[in-house]
């Protein structure tokens, strides 16, 4: 028999995935994207030293929060969200606002405010585009000012975007994606996080096998 808290967690999980899949559908991307971000985040935090200090339940809540990293995109106009080509500077500024929209939306959902996973989901939604060198958005956080869970989701999100087909690009090969990540062309990441990611990348590739 489920405990009351187990039933609540199941309901919250279903709501997480309903909202996340709705966002993916609107943006023309596969709903599998959010499941992979969940799984990559969990692998890196549970199976490598980057998750040291986090208990199992915290990692579970963080992985659930990762599912909603892009919830703010629901407030981005279709012409920007689904543009089949590079964004203009003005359009990019609009797109960047999904981080702030996302955390504000989560604040307005009672089920999330009352859950133990809310702080993680809020932080991930707002800060998964921050960069280790301080040149990210929306708050310009630098280094360890960025939580380890937001850092992890950021890297998972970049990797998945590179190896997946999007409205504005074809999928890159896994090896090409690794080259782009390691060269810094796709952002600046915590060197320790990069090291453990590279150790686990062959395992992570298996998530993409049909």
Explain what the structure shows.
With 210 residues, the chain is an all-alpha fold. It is 61% helix and 0% strand. It contains 11 helices and no strands. It has helices at residues 4-26, 32-47, 56-67, 78-81, 89-96, 98-107, 110-113, 118-127, 148-163, 174-183, 191-205. Helix 3 (56-67) crosses helix 8, helix 8 (118-127) packs across helix 9 (148-163) and helix 9 packs across helix 10 (174-183). The model is unreliable at 1-8 (pLDDT under 50).
Q: Structural class from helices and strands?
A: mainly alpha
Strand tally is 0
Shape: globular
Q: How would you spell out the order of helices and strands?
A: HHHHHHHHHHH
Question: In terms of per-residue confidence, which ranges show pLDDT below 50 for 5 or more consecutive residues?
Answer: 1-8
Estimate what percentage of residues fall within beta strands: under 5%
Architecture blueprint of SSEs:
Layout: H1 4-26, H2 32-47, H3 56-67, H4 78-81, H5 89-96, H6 98-107, H7 110-113, H8 118-127, H9 148-163, H10 174-183, H11 191-205
Helix pairs in contact: 1-2, 2-3, 2-9, 3-8, 6-8, 8-9, 9-10
């Amino acid at each position: 028999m489920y405990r009351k808290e187990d039933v609540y967690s199941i309901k919250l999980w279903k709501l997480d995935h309903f909202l996340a899949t709705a966002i993916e559908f609107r943006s023309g991307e596969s709903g599998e994207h959010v499941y992979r971000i969940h799984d990559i985040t969990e692998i890196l935090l549970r199976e490598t030293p980057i998750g040291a200090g986090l208990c199992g339940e915290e990692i579970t809540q963080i992985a659930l929060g990762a599912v909603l990293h892009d919830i703010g995109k629901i407030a981005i106009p279709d012409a920007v969200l689904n543009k089949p080509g590079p964004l203009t500077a003005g359009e990019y500024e609009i797109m960047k606002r999904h981080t702030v929209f996302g955390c504000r939306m989560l604040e307005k959902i009672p089920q999330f405010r009352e859950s133990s996973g809310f702080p993680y989901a809020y932080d991930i939604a707002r800060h998964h585009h921050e960069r280790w060198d301080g040149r990210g958005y929306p708050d310009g956080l630098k280094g360890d000012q960025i939580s380890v869970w937001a850092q992890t989701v950021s890297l998972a999100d970049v990797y998945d975007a590179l190896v997946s087909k999007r409205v504005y690009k074809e999928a890159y090969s896994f090896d090409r994606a690794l080259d782009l990540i390691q060269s810094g062309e796709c952002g600046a990441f915590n060197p320790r996080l990069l090291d453990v990611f590279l150790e686990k990348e062959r395992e992570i590739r298996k998530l993409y096998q049909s």
